[in-house]
Amino acid sequence: MADFIRFFIPSYFLLFFIVSFLGISVKVAKQMGKNPNVLPRDGSAYALVGLYFKLILLALFAYVMLLLWFPESVFPAFKIQLLESSFFQYTGFFLMMAAFIWVVIAQQQMKDSWRIGIDSEIKTNLITHGLFRFSRNPIFLGIIISLVGFFLVFPTAIAFSFLMIGSILMQIQIRLEEEYLLKEHGQIYLAYKKRVNRMLSLY
């Protein structure tokens, strides 16, 4: 199992990044003739959130690569022994794969409304169909679930820190996006907000 985890985790996150960020961004860029990565690079607080996102992504990539290249050193480091069981590991594998499929579907349903950040120049459509009937933020939800799965597959304090920090940054981003969507779509967004929960509606 250790050898499988060693290769699975880096492969998973590399595929996740290529398909769910790079691939969809290239596709949308071709459709609209503009880079969908609209995170600001000024000195604003919002730009700082974007910078933290990038740093966390780089740190995660570095961590899983170290797991691949130096398993003898990384596997035992900061392990949470209480969570080491086959049940948690298989649950984690399932969550990671389900989250990947969920995110890809949600991105396809967004079509050219997909952005990395808030696009203040081009007004995007408010997507309320498909997975957006159950979650106002299905992509962020999928990323959080994938990090939960990662933690269950590889229960270390470092994996837990990625889950916690990533979740906090995503909650900040969600609230910034909600302010923008309310400004852009007004009562239509308010009605949608009342009907569908921020992360998941089970009805």
What's the topology here?
Layout: H1 2-32, H2 45-69, H3 71-74, H4 86-110, H5 138-153, H6 157-185, H7 187-195
Helix pairs in contact: 1-2, 1-4, 2-6, 4-5, 5-6, 6-7
Protein architecture, described:
By secondary structure, the chain is mostly helical. It has one domain: Four Helix Bundle (Hemerythrin (Met), subunit A) (Up-down Bundle). The chain has 7 helices and no strands. It has helices at 2-32, 45-69, 71-74, 86-110, 138-153, 157-185, 187-195. The N and C termini lie far apart (37 Å). The mean pLDDT is 93.
* Number of separate helices: 7
**How far apart are the first and last residues' alpha carbons, in Å?**
37 Å
Percent helix, as a range, is 55-70%
CATH uppermost class = Mainly Alpha
Binned strand content: under 5%
CATH topology label: Four Helix Bundle (Hemerythrin (Met), subunit A)
Radius of gyration: 18 Å
Uncertain regions spanning at least 5 consecutive residues: none
Question: Structural class, from secondary structure content?
Answer: mainly alpha
The overall pLDDT average reads 93
In short:
The chain has 203 residues and is mostly helical.
Descriptive key words:
Four Helix Bundle (Hemerythrin (Met), subunit A); 203 residues; 7 helices; globular
